[in-house]
Amino acid sequence: MRERFYVTTPIYYPSDRLHIGHAYTTTVADSLARWHRFAGRDVYFVTGSDEHGQKIQRAALAKGVTPQAYVDEIVASFKHLWEKMNIRYDDFVRTTDDRHHRAVQAVFQKIYDQGDIYKSAYEGWYCTPCETFWVESRLEEGHCPDCKRPVELVKEESYFFRLSKYAERLLKHIEEHPEFIQPESRRNEMVNFIKGGLEDLCVSRTTFDWGIPVPFDSKHVVYVWFDALTNYLTALGYPDTDGLMEDWWPADLHLVGKEIMRFHTIIWPIMLMALELPLPKTVFGHGWLLFDSDKMSKSKGNVVDPLVLIDEFGVDAIRYFLMREISFGQDGNFSRKALIERTNADLANDLGNLLNRTLSMLNRYFDGVVPEPAASPGDVDQALIDHANRLGKEVDDCLKQFKLNDALIRIWQLVGRANKYVDERAPWNLAKLEDKSELSSVMYNLVETLRIVALLIKPFLPETGEKMWQQLGLAGLNSKSLADAVWGLLPAGTQTAKGDPIFPRIEAEKEEEPAEEPKEQKQEETKPEGVLISIDDFMKCELVVAEILEAGPVKGADRLLKLQVDIGSEKRQIVAGIAKHYAPADLIGKRIVVVQNLKPAKLRGELSEGMLLAATSPDGTLELVSVSEAIPAGSRVK
Ligand code: ME8
Questions:
Q1: Pocket-testing residue among 16, 22, 149, 224, ligand 1, by greatest number of atoms within 8 A of Cβ
Q2: pTM for the full model?
Q3: Higher local confidence (pLDDT), 616 or 186
Q4: What tens digit of pLDDT does each residue of 560-575 get?
Q5: Residue 22 CA to ligand 1 centre (angstroms)
Q6: Distances, alpha carbon 63 to alpha carbons 56, 57, 66, 70, 581, in Å
């Protein structure tokens, strides 16, 4: 029987659009799924959206729409992002799906029937952003110990789940299965948490209704984490136990961020024990993507939008950066500078150049046709051949142990080896010889190395693998597997097709190019740094609140948007360099701050009568300065 691999990501909250942190988890899961498929295993890859609970209900209310309409729109944006990132999942579970409703009610009923859920009263603290109950003793200065935000006092009748009953059994499982919680540091944290004593968990709520009703008591909705964790079974058709359940349960890997390890390594396994189902083989808690050493979050205003990055750098540069730069399991910093450096060094220089120079030489010496290699390679040739030949197995071993960085490092070691081989074997000198057999071997070896590299990187960088394959003049990449990553399968006589560089270098100017207002207005806004001004000077600048009525593109200027705004006294047109940061539709109704007494200017032929205020972070993320609807258009800002 073929080996199986069932991998999941967390199902994300559609309380807001996803950021690069969510893209990180999903890219890693996708690459693992793609790799194992490539290595000949049967793979099932599930992601989804966690749509119930107080947080979502409140967000919908604040926007004046129903929770269902609210989540429908955001979930569509999740799917759009995954498509742009080349995420190839097998199933997407929405917790508002009927099938999920059925699974959650079955789980709740079963655990209740066998006596592990009981009714009582809850009085304690609740963190709505984390959807987490806290006992007083775990709070930190009255705040949520996880997200540090304020908690709310909750007092309500609830159903409770007997976590405490299973603590010993869970500790024993963790001890006997060192692979269950990874990396090891998180295992120790979880063991300490369990040893600190498990309280029974509140698993229903009565003070709002956006959730799945408790099957036998419709006054209660199921607690959102109890609901969400069940998604891993929903995807397999639970409560039907034949079919997918039989084929895929237990999961091989739940990939999650470190902050939700407690739910996945304590609550979830205990739910499974109560259901008499086997536990997942591994829960891996990876680290956080930090921004200037701080966790990315909407409320801190430091989130990075993956769609903006993809438009600018291409999807594979982002995928590569996430998997190569961040040590898997540890926290890592995201910065634009590091992204540009990585892309230029590893992708443009090492990989892109190897392909480019190899195919250029092949064009020059053999009209782009792969020559026949000589029968007996020399030592230097053999070293390259051996390296390429063993790489597939090495990468597979790395990935079986979730060592993603190592896998990529090893592939790039071969790329480095091949670049060095070009210098050592100097084909330009061999080309001067009458006998072309050595040149033939060297060129064959280089193209064959590139073929193996293309195969091995495709699970990580699908577009790049594809582009390389085409330039190498090969067909049928999708049907290739790890078994094809062995030396010598490249047929001599293949006509290669050198194309554009696969990763053009990103010029330094581009990195420094400001995303804001074009020249004409910039002159108005520049002031010598550090010069003190009087309050009178400041008051010369008339800042007012403006409501955006319309927004649209400016022809021929992909950084600019044209806005029609209401500044209270009149309507104005403002042209601003924010197109890379905002979709026009997202701007309508926003109340922003504008300088209303700026001299009008023409930008790309469009009149701009004022300037808007925006903040730009060091990585280029831009946010408009805005106020709530409580402040009408025309209000003075000072
Ligand atoms: O927790 N760095 O959903 P969520 C790395 N609905 N990963 C990050 C990250 C960052 N800065 N920010 C988010 C929930 N993530 C629940 C899950 S599962 C049954 C229910 C990733 O939308 C990481 O995987 O808050 C983290 O665990 C997850 O997004 C949290 O997503």
A1: 22
A2: 0.80
A3: 186
A4: 899 998 888 778 899 9
A5: 6
A6: 11, 10, 9, 8, 21
